[in-house]
Amino acid sequence: MNTENPDWQEIAHQLRKPDGEMGLKVAENMHKSNIEMTRAAIKGLELQPGDKVLEIGHGSAMHVQELFMQQPDIHYTGLEISNLMHTEAQKNNAEAMKTGQAEFFTYDGIQLPIAQNSLSKIFSVNTIYFWEDAEDFSRQLFASLANEGMLSLAFAEQKFMKQLPFVQYGFQTYEMEDVISLLEQVGFIKHSISNQEDLFPSNTGEPIKRPFSLVVMKKGLD
C-alpha cells in the first residue's frame, strides 16, 4: 500500500471486503484498531451459558477466543462477505471448529442465511456503514433472534467518520439516535446505550481518540 499517496477508494473497498495481499494487511490492522470496540460489543451481550451467538463481519476472527474465555458454554456463528476473511477465520479458530463451538459461513451481505428465532445474541462492529438496505437488514436481525434476544452494535460516531478520507466511497455513517430509531422501527427495545472512546491510528501513525457508540437492543416477548 502506498502510504504517501494512498488510494482511498481501494482502502474503502478493502475495509468493506478485504481481499488479496492488501486484504491480509488491512485485516490485521482492523483487528488491532477495533479490538476495544469489539470487547465493548461483546460485553454488551451479557453472555449466558447456552447462548447461540452470531457475529456479522468478523474479519480475521482473532477475537473469538475472548468470547469463549468469558463464557465457555456458547455456540458462535460468524458471517462474512469476504472469502479471504472466511478462510482466515477458520485458520484462527480451527480448534473451536473441531469441538463444534464455532462455525463460519460466507453470505452476500444482504440476505441472512439464518433461521428465524434461532439466536440469543447478535453483535457486529463497524459494519453498519455497509448495510445496503439498513431497514430490511435490521428486520432480518430481529427475526433471527428468539424472544428476549439481544443485538449489540458498536460503530464510530458520524462526526468522527466524516473526517476520514475514505468514507466518501460507499460508507453510510450514523448518529447514535439514527441507529436507535432504525432498530426501534423494526421492533427492537432499547436495552443500554453508551458513548465510549478508544485509540485509533491516524495517518501519521500517532493514536488519536475515536468516539464510538455502543447500542444494545432487545427483542421483547411476543
From TrEMBL:
Domain Methyltransferase stretches: 53-149
Any one GO molecular function term: sterol 24-C-methyltransferase activity
Assigned keywords, A-Z: Methyltransferase, Transferase
Protein name per UniProt: Methyltransferase
Keyword Methyltransferase belongs to the record: yes
Record organism: Echinicola pacifica
One Gene Ontology term from the biological process aspect of the record: sterol biosynthetic process
Domain of life: Bacteria
Residue intervals passing through the bilayer: none
Claim: Transferase is one of the keywords in the record: yes
InterPro entries (alphabetical): Erg6_SMT_methyltransf, Methyltransf_25, SAM-dependent_MTases_sf
